[in-house]
Amino acid sequence: MPVEFLILIVVAVVLVFSIMVLILSRFRKCPSDKIMVIYGKVGSNKDGTARSAICIHGGASFVWPVIQAFQYLDLTPMSISVDLKNTLSRQNIRIDVPSRFTVGISTEQSVMVNAAERLLGLTLSEIQELAKDIILGQLRLIIATMDIEEINTDRDKFLEQVSRNVETELKKIGLRLINVNVTDITDESGYILALGKEAAAKAINDAKKSVAEKDRDGSIGEANARRDQRIQVAAAESSAIDGENQAQVAIAQSNALRREKEAEAEKIASAAEKIQAAKALEESYTAEKEAEITRAERDRATLEANIIVKAEIDKREVELKAEAEAEQARRIARGEADAIYLRMEAEARGLQEMLTRQASGLAQVVSAAGGDAGDALRLMLADKMEELLRIQVDAISGIKIDKVTVWDGAGSGNSSTAGFLSGLMKSLPPINDLLEMTGMKLPEFLGGPAEVQAPEENA
User: CA–CA distance from 44 to each of 40, 52, 61, 117 (Å)?
Assistant: First the structure.
């Protein structure tokens, strides 16, 4: 990078920095206790005339270099002692008016411009001297138009005129009146002192006169009071006797009337007491009756509530017990049903198994009989024959025969004993029929059928 380019950069940076420092240094802020006056080329007014200055209070502004400058006006109040002496009043009496004025630079926009135009650059003492001259002139003018009595007695009017005239003149130079304090006003001729003495003497004389008049009125009043007292005492004594007599008569009449009234009152009171007692007793009975009714209703409601609540509780208890018993019965029945179902299911399975096995055995029997069902049935009956015979024998084994008489007829074809046995066997269940179903038969002597011989064929 060329050296000349670096130099140009450095110069540009320095120039920019210098401009920024210059701009920052020309930006001015106005404190609250001062007025900043910017003067120079500050523009023009609305009518086209050039403005003398710009006054700023409590703010900030940029002050252009070269064409503008600025200064501050202090807003600190100034106390000015004005001892006005030998000033003529309207009565041509010279008086001394010692006073103290407090003034300061105004912050009104138009008045600030007057201060900038007339007070800028002056010291505090110079401003105080200028304001003092204005105040002295206005005080002389005001005193010359007023009587001493007005100045001395109507102090508010005097101060009002002083404030109005002095502040009007002070605004012309940019000041405003803050306070006025006028002390005792005096004069060389002693007029004000004489006015005071006159007023004091007048007040004293008026007081003495008032006291004398009061004393006189008191003496006259005292004498009149004594006279009236004697007259009134005599009249009172004369009328007192008459009054006493009349009073005694009146007392007697009053006593009689009183006793009569007391008797009537006693009678009325007694009747009233009895009536009130009766009413009170009636009201008491009524109240007791209502109380008893209320108590009975309460007891009935309590009893009903107790009975109903107990009945509801018992009902609920019975319902709960019934529901519990029903649920228990349902569960027991369900258990018994399940047990019966399981038992019957087991019996059915056993019966099924037994029938299955019997069917299998029968099938084997039929198979052993060569597939002939009749032969299979005969085989089964032959197998059960012993048991069947045992049942037949058991049927007559319980018959008790004490004595048997046999009348065996001679020459008959059949023996009586044999017939008896044959009939006895016939009285047994028809086992022969059962045997015949199987293709077997009993012997002839046991009641079986006789054998029939087949006829011989002829040769």
Answer: 11, 8, 17, 15
Distance of CA 53 to the CA centre of its chain: 66
What angle (nearest 5°) sits at the alpha carbon of residue 63, between those of residues 58 and 69?
A: 100
Using CA atoms, how far apart are residues 438 and 310, in angstroms rounded to an integer? 82
3-class DSSP assignment, residue 98: strand
CA distance 219 to 230: 17
Helix, strand or coil, per DSSP, at residue 427: coil
CB 166 within 8 A of CB 127: no
The residues spanned by each domain of the chain are 20-72, 76-189
Measured in degrees and rounded to the nearest 5, phi and psi for residue 369 equal -85, 10
**Quick check: pTM over 0.85?**
no
Q: Report the C-alpha gap between 430 and 403 in whole angstroms.
A: 27
pLDDT tens across 295-311, in order?
888 888 787 777 777 77
DSSP 267-301: HHHHHHHHHHHHHHHHHHHHHHHHHHHHHHHHHHH
| Identity of the residue numbered 243 | G
CATH of 76-189, one of 3.10.120.10, 3.20.20.70, 3.30.479.30, 3.60.40.10: 3.30.479.30
Contacts of residue 156, Cβ cutoff 8 Å, sequence gap at least 6? none
- CB-based burial of residue 98 (10 Å sphere; 0-12 exposed, 13-18 middle, 19+ buried)? middle
Q: What is the pLDDT of residues 182-210, one digit of tens each?
A: 877 777 666 666 665 565 566 667 766 77
d(CA 101, CA 377) in angstroms, rounded, equals 165
Query: What is the distance in angstroms between the CA of the first residue and the CA of the last residue of the chain?
Result: 176
151 C-beta neighbours (distance < 10 Å), count: 21
Q: What is the dihedral of CA 419, 422, 424, 426, to 10 degrees?
A: -130
Is residue 444 within 8 A of residue 418, CB to CB? The reply is no
